[in-house]
Each structure stands twice: as C-alpha cells, then as structure tokens.
Specification:
about 130 residues, 4 helices, 2 domains, mainly alpha
Length: about 130
C-alpha cells in the first residue's frame, strides 16, 4: 500500500490543505476577488438603474413640447414637468448610489466587525 493511498494521509491532506487552507485564504479572497466582484456588481447595478431612470433621455428632450403642443402654454408646462421628472429621477439615482456605497463599505468592514465581536465575546466568556 502506497503512502498516498493511505486514508490517514488523505485525511490529513484534507484537513491541512482544504480546511485550514480555505480558512487562511478567505481574508485574501474577501478583500481581493470578493471586493472586486462586489464593486463590479455595484457599478453594473448603478448603470442599470441609470438606464432604467433614463435621465439622459429626459435631459435631451427637456425643451421638446409634450404631446405635440407647440403653443407657449404647452411649452412651459412641458418644460416644468420634465424639470420635475429630472430632479426626482436624479435624487433617486443619487439615493441608489448612496445605497450601493454603503453596501461596499459594509462589505469591507463586516469581517473586521465580526472579528471584533468574536474576540470580545471570548474575552467576556473566558475573562
């Protein structure tokens, strides 16, 4: 029987390489690939929300009369309605960007907070 076929050797390899290796690799992944994935998700989500709100379309057509009413009353009403739409949609996009920023900040600070809580509870329990 060869040493690499031994069940004790494969169990030891599993414990040392897979379990302990994954635990030690986790912080590196969290702050490198995981943070990059979270950042890409937030950027993609912001771009999708920006397209959904279509601020650029509203801005492009701000001086175009609505419903083809080219009299001065129709132009004034159309301008202010589109201006209100632009303001509300810009505020919504700003709030979404703020939410995504908090999400990335939470992603970066969560392991530190959890580590602090675990350490604090161990001190309370054993101290």
């Amino acid at each position: 029987m060869k040493a690499r076929d031994n069940i004790a050797t494969s169990t030891l390899k599993f414990i040392l390489v897979d379990l302990i290796g994954d635990v030690l690799y986790w912080p590196l992944w969290w702050y490198s690939k995981g943070l990059a994935q979270a950042g890409r998700f937030c950027i993609q989500s912001f771009q999708e929300e920006s397209e959904r709100l279509a601020i650029h379309v509203w801005l492009k057509n701000i001086f175009t009369p609505m419903f083809g009413q080219y009299d001065w009353e129709g132009r004034i009403i159309s301008f202010f309605m589109r201006l209100i739409q632009l303001i509300v949609r810009s505020i919504l996009l700003l709030l979404w960007a703020l939410f995504l920023s908090v999400l990335v900040l939470t992603w970066t600070l969560l392991p530190v907070y959890i580590s602090y809580q675990v350490f604090d509870n161990f001190l309370w329990f054993f101290g």
